[in-house]
Design goal:
560 residues; alpha+beta; BirA Bifunctional Protein, domain 2; YbaK protein; Rossmann fold; 9-stranded mixed β-sheet; 30% strand; binds adenosine-5'-triphosphate; binds magnesium ion; binds zinc ion
Amino acid sequence: MVRRQSELFLPTLRDDPADAEAVSHKLLMRAGLIRQVSAGLWSFLPAGWRVHEKIVGIVREEMDAIGGQEMFMPVIAPAELWEKTGRITIPELFRFADRGGRQFILSMTHEETVTFHFSELSSYRDLPKILYHFQTKGRDEPRPRGGLLRVREFVMKDAYSFDRDEEGLDISFQKHAGAYRRMFDRCEIEYYEVEAESGMMGGSESIDYLAPSGSGENTLVTCENGDYAADLEIARGVPRPPVFPEALDRPTEVATPGITTIEELAEFLGIDPAATSKAMPVTTLDGTVVLALVRGDDRLEEAKLAAALRSPFRQSTEDEIREAFGADPGSLGPVGFRGEIVADTTLSEGQFVAGANRTGWHLRGVQLGRDFEARHADIRVPVEGDACPNCDGRLRFQTAIELGHIFKLGSRYSAPLGASFLDEEGVESPVLMGCYGIGPGRVMAAAVEQHHDEHGIVWPRPLAPYDAHVLALHGAADEVLQPAVEVAEDLSDGGLEVLLDDRAQRPGEKFADADLLGVPLRVTVGKKTLEDDAVDLRIRATGADERIPREMLRRRVEEL
Ligand SMILES: Nc1ncnc2c1ncn2[C@@H]1O[C@H](COP(=O)(O)OP(=O)(O)OP(=O)(O)O)[C@@H](O)[C@H]1O
Ligand SMILES: [Mg+2]
Ligand SMILES: [Zn+2]
């Protein structure tokens, strides 16, 4: 096909939009591919939708290749379904009522609806199955940002697997992991497969696909030797060991008047900040006060602590602290505290300075196991330069985007929604499920984050809105336009999707727009090239130019 640019709705912009920070946000806007309707609500303009649909095509092929069956479920769901699974209280959920006052939600994902359908089946003979669809999701995100990176309405491919046992679930999960790798490879996106926190979805195993990017909300932690990759929220790092002062036979009080920070404390005592500890009292859902302890130079990772506690938590209030410790909030430490203590594994060995549960005093020589008992858990935030947990390489940090996410759900949804099956012996069990999501819009933004230069987007070929961009120079005067049309049609006959710039614009503007749009092959037809009965071919990715006789172009392009 040949699309004439004079007819295309492709409003390009010379300058960056004022409110945009992410490169993908700027370039997708400037290239005329997307436009904002309201915060987190975006329209894809025609060329942008072509890119989106190319990604959709790749995802669909890979899902079909693992035996996925495409279906289609409505965005709107009755609130009852979400009440049954307890997800009705999720803050991101859009809720509304119909004219009769009946409550509905905009699905932010489709576990409830698909499990509702699957509950119709009842035999082991119906298993396993993989069902998927492409459907709009609504999410009332607290902070929409970055163009397509975090939006409030987007198309997701969400797939669901149904198996009779853990072994089957594992097979379905691995199939999806393979399909996801192939999708991102085909999109030519650099990504890392990392173990992830299953968060509020409540599953036993999950993998995130993270793409390094100039802008993103995840931090990817990798080992310089390539044997470790994780999301910062769950990454493990091995920090340098502290320089300990001389060991003491028992904890010894030391007056530390007016000292409130770890830096002041370390300086005052003349010790390494890494040889101090920091205590954070938190209160779990059932009201228990727990003391979390990390090294003085570390920060507490709340997601890790929540996982260790198997409960969300909040900072304890002053009253709760006084009651649990009999001390002021500023002076807390583990010695003498009778409640539960979770200590970071860095505190397992050695003696640390700790709060004395007495304002203006600390304890030196506090040793876990001797002076207090605690659960050991990794609850610290790793820092760049920590050693890798697998080797002695250093950890590197990069900003990244989550492209996709796959989970084992087990019976999290099948149990409350009654999706069960009878086995050969007539024994009833809940179906075991997995769920597998990917947002083509976010993948599109990630592709731009990774593939661009100072002039614009450099689309990977499988995602490009067109394969070739033919530019008719000299205001597209007839003697240039006619040969340009022939060139475009010739390429189209060869199977390429072609955009023909037949507008009256000056050459400089045409080149600038072409660079911005980032079509992989640019073919320029002008008076000069025609004098040679030739065209100029430029590869967008490398900037390599060549003048090619007109009749050779198609063959040359096929070689690329
Ligand atoms: N607000 C959003 N905007 C654009 N794409 C999104 C958004 N939320 C999720 N996605 C896409 O849908 C996929 C699956 O959704 P899932 O519910 O697993 O995401 P999530 O864990 O909520 O993601 P995040 O941690 O970024 O909020 C994501 O990997 C991403 O590609
Ligand atoms: Mg989310
Ligand atoms: Zn390593």
